[in-house]
Amino acid sequence: MKESLLSFSLEKIKNLIVEEFGEKPFRAGQIFSRLHLGEEFFEMTALSNDLREKLTEKYSALPVKIIKTLKSTDGTEKFLFLLEDGNVVEGVLMRYKHGSSLCISTQVGCRMGCAFCASGLNGLVRNLSAGEILGEVICVNKYLGGGLGEKRKVINLVLMGSGEPLDNYDNVVEFLRLVSFKDGINISPRNISLSTSGLVPKMKRLAEENLSVNLTVSLHSPFDEERKKIMPVAKKYSIKEILEACKHYFDRTGRRYIFEYVLIKGENDRREHAEELIKLLKGRPCHVNLIRLNEVKENDLKGGTEKEAYQFLGLLERGGLSATVRRKMGEDIEGACGQLRQKYIEQTKED
Ligand code: SAH
Ligand code: SF4
User: Whose CA is nearest to atom 7 of ligand 1?
Assistant: First the structure.
């Protein structure tokens, strides 16, 4: 597989074309913006034929293609992205009046193995490069007719598709710098949320990157012992350590953090769970996002009703927490993390 030039910063492209191809430095800006618009090298007609050929020989431009789109009745749209080695990842687009929010993947599969999640079913296949993660955003921005900077159509990003972003730390941080770069799509880190299952040392490192993205942590239980049963990563890092890392993130960035809590019927949705959450989180600059489980056929875990979710929410709110129930979206299009990819893999096996 050729390396994608989309993984390169403007500075790195500049060095490359000057030193390797003997070009003038200003060409780098042209290449950078054309790449971020989703163009292939042959489309970059401002460049000489010779340069276009040389670039094509050694590098790829856009390393991601949309191969399938599914529209939900609620307006959510799901994308299946094909990578150059034949692997696929998925993304979900939510359209709002003021612009669109896109959920993207950071790895093919995931090694964390959470009990309720379809992405971790076959473990980790590989990390996505910075250019591949950026490629997902560029493909969808282009699909929506968007351009760079003010002309972008994707205005919010969530790193909540398949993969554990902090398990692919360097590429994800490089991606965050590229997608928020002033000459590119330029999505502000304030409009980007990164969700992690709680890799404490990496959360601390992220606080030092001067990036100020919104940090979201998948908690799913206020009890370490129960958390270990549904999230193997909990055997490594305790809730206490996670809370310390969140505090550190807030102290460094001033950003309020969010806890994701997938309600699993009979497992983590009882009164004692709400009470313990209140004890743990009250007074902290955080918000709790309750998510009703999207049931996947590979396990027996069940989600509760909408009414039960709102009852749990009521307990948290009366206890003084800021919380919401996340609207369930795209259920009819394999809405849960990793479900569409899993279906695609099964179908291609059958063919
Ligand atoms: N690996 C990161 C980000 C990707 S998962 C993380 O775990 O935070 C993004 C969110 O989707 C997580 O909060 C995860 O718990 C949730 N999720 C996974 N499978 C789900 C399912 N079947 N139903 C509802 N939410 C799910
Ligand atoms: Fe990985 Fe997140 Fe799925 Fe857990 S929930 S297996 S960390 S993608």
Answer: 197
Question: Residues spanned by CATH 1.10.150.530 within the chain?
Answer: 3-60
CATH superfamily to which 64-350 belongs: Aldolase class I (3.20.20.70)
Per-residue model confidence (pLDDT) at position 126: 97
For the full predicted model, state whether its pTM sits above 0.85. yes
Q: Are strands 323-325 and 286-292 parallel, antiparallel or unpaired?
A: parallel
Reported as a single tens digit per residue, the pLDDT across 236-277 is 999 999 999 999 999 999 999 999 999 999 999 999 999 999
Name residues contacting ligand 1 (CB within 6 A). 116-117, 160, 164, 195-197, 218, 260, 262, 291, 293-294, 296, 336-337
Mutation pick for ligand 2 pocket among 158, 164, 195 (CB with most ligand atoms within 8 Å): 164
Residue 288, C-beta contacts closer than 8 angstroms, at least 6 positions apart: 258, 259, 261, 277, 281, 316, 321, 322, 323, 324
